[in-house]
Amino acid sequence: MTREPYPSARREDIVDILHETPVPDPYRWLEDPDSPETKDWLLAQAELYGKQRGTQRFKSRVAELLRSGSVGAPIWRDENHFFSRRTPDQEHAVYYVVAPDGTERALIDPMAIDPSGLTTLDAVQPDKEGRLLAYQISVGGNEESVLYIIDVATGARLEGPIDRCRYSPVAWLPGGEAFYYVRRLPSTEVPENETQFHRRVYLHRVGTSTEDDVMIFGQGLKMTNYYGVAVSRDGRWLQVSSHEGTAPRNDVWVADLTASPIDRPELRVVQEGVDAQSGLVFGRDGRLYVHTDRDAPRGRVCVTDPAEPGFETWRDLIPEDPEAVLSDFAILDGLERPVMLVGWTRHAISEITVHDLETGERLGEVPTPGLGSIGSIVERPEGGHEAWFGYTDNTTPPTIQRYDAATGETTLWAASPGAVDVPQVRTEQVVYRSKDGTDVRMLIISPVVEAQGPRPTILYGYGGFGLSMTPGYSASILAWVEAGGVYAIANLRGGGEEGEEWHRAGMLANKQNVFDDFHAAAEHLIATGLTTPAQLGISGGSNGGLLVGAALTQRPDLYAAVVCSAPLLDMIRYEKFGLGASWNVEYGSADDPEQFGWLRGYSPYHHVRESVAYPATLFTVFQSDTRVHPLHAWKMCAALQHASTADRPVLLRNETEVGHGARSVSRTVDLSADTLTFLARYTGL
């Protein structure tokens, strides 16, 4: 096979000396997306990819499987509730309010706002009475989350746009006259390269100018801090939390709003300077419930008095489980014997247990539809005996289940609206051994028909930020397996599948464990006869893009094809772009000599070697990505195209007007079809 010649890419003799170590960077010029040279190179790459793209053989099937639509869990306000739903022909989910008689009314339809499909709904928060609704939207994938307030009864817009609200919670005070929220400082007040940082907590009074907003918290703290804010249902207690970037620890404060003004709350420390994460729920019974991994890496629930919330007063209610991770809880107190529902993931599979609210005694389990993933457990703000939770697994589109604690029964409350012919697949969880002897779990989804020898296989992983890879409905996975392939998802260290210790075993100095776990997963799939190196493709995005970038440079012999999406790949300079500065608590900083050594040890861009037969590689990047700049993939693509001696191509799919996160369904279909087609071609499916 003779591959197309690659576009010309100038190699510069740029070498930085960091901590007395030379660090070459021959494609530094590709860091400037606005330079004519970069634009010409991107156009040439687009032309090359267009020639190589081929027929999107999976497109119609992925589109058909996505016609399942989706449905979201309800948010209750008295007898009304709010929820989202996407019907089979919609590009985006629509947000509704539902009256007690079941009458639905659309409140926010992204396609009505913007028929181009480029506008996404990022977040919603009704006020405590359900009369006003805060919502946030962004355009073209930039995730900037502009905030608006509407009147629920009329749909009239009352406030907005309020900009700089990316990742902002909205914490309403009773009556809907004011709320706390998080907003970045104006760009005029911060250095040019720090405009994505410098958040503050503000109090905003509805109907007044944001110029009059009162800064409540954040002055003088680290620029990369993220803040959380919440107000108890009765309006008495304010909770403020602070994370340094994405660090797995936070500081937490509370204020009694009956004892200090809402614009000058007297915040008291609950947790500060502690290497743990804690979140607070103010119970209707007057107690403070603390969900924490402090002294409990898999999580526990403690109770205390909100007036004396310090750690020394915490009492275990739900102790740590040695094998399951405590994910969330809900309180059902409309019963003679009030209970707490506790959500867990046990080796990435979800379950819910029932406990006595006073003693924590386990009383039973909530029936669930199968071995899958459960979303947050929702209760009515005023209490009761009902709870709602999302459920999905590898063959079940999202559903909402209702649990009645009075009867102990779980029933289907809402299903995804589309009728879809879902293929039958076989799913099993296996345990394999990593390089250092650690047991790692992997979910393998395969055709029901017994294999006659090894099959083309996709291995997927993430392994970072404490995020867990749990079962879920995926049109891409189902289309691949229906066509005869195998799809494997490894629960690598760095994730949260086994709690915070599992996360930390794959971050900072331990990052190589993640890559070793991934290589071992591949070797297990080969050793057990499921696949061969010539039939094995790997896929990952964002931190998972870093994963597969490291995999292809460390073990190019082990993989036939790679899809590397929105990746981090230059780990020496990653902090200088996008939100990179907020991730040095996960990866480390090249400014620190020891941490520079960790990063240089695996940084994929710096480990591309001359005259190596690299796997077929497709980089998929998004021009409006404000989290991970596309320059990582651009530089790596140029380096691989220069170095690889293989007939298999290195290609770049550079997409405009989308970003790192949400996108329209049609854009999702195109991306899935292109990546599956590429992987099929170079694994022999």
UniProtKB/TrEMBL annotation:
<dbReference type="InterPro" id="IPR002470">
    <property type="entry name" value="Peptidase_S9A"/>
</dbReference>
<comment type="similarity">
    <text>Belongs to the peptidase S9A family.</text>
</comment>
<dbReference type="Pfam" id="PF02897">
    <property type="entry name" value="Peptidase_S9_N"/>
</dbReference>
<protein>
    <recommendedName>
        <fullName>prolyl oligopeptidase</fullName>
        <ecNumber>3.4.21.26</ecNumber>
    </recommendedName>
</protein>
<dbReference type="InterPro" id="IPR029058">
    <property type="entry name" value="AB_hydrolase_fold"/>
</dbReference>
<dbReference type="InterPro" id="IPR002471">
    <property type="entry name" value="Pept_S9_AS"/>
</dbReference>
<feature type="domain" description="Peptidase S9A N-terminal">
    <location>
        <begin position="7"/>
        <end position="414"/>
    </location>
</feature>
<dbReference type="InterPro" id="IPR001375">
    <property type="entry name" value="Peptidase_S9_cat"/>
</dbReference>
<feature type="domain" description="Peptidase S9 prolyl oligopeptidase catalytic">
    <location>
        <begin position="476"/>
        <end position="684"/>
    </location>
</feature>
<dbReference type="InterPro" id="IPR051167">
    <property type="entry name" value="Prolyl_oligopep/macrocyclase"/>
</dbReference>
<keyword id="KW-0720">Serine protease</keyword>
<keyword id="KW-0378">Hydrolase</keyword>
<dbReference type="Pfam" id="PF00326">
    <property type="entry name" value="Peptidase_S9"/>
</dbReference>
<keyword id="KW-0645">Protease</keyword>
<dbReference type="InterPro" id="IPR023302">
    <property type="entry name" value="Pept_S9A_N"/>
</dbReference>
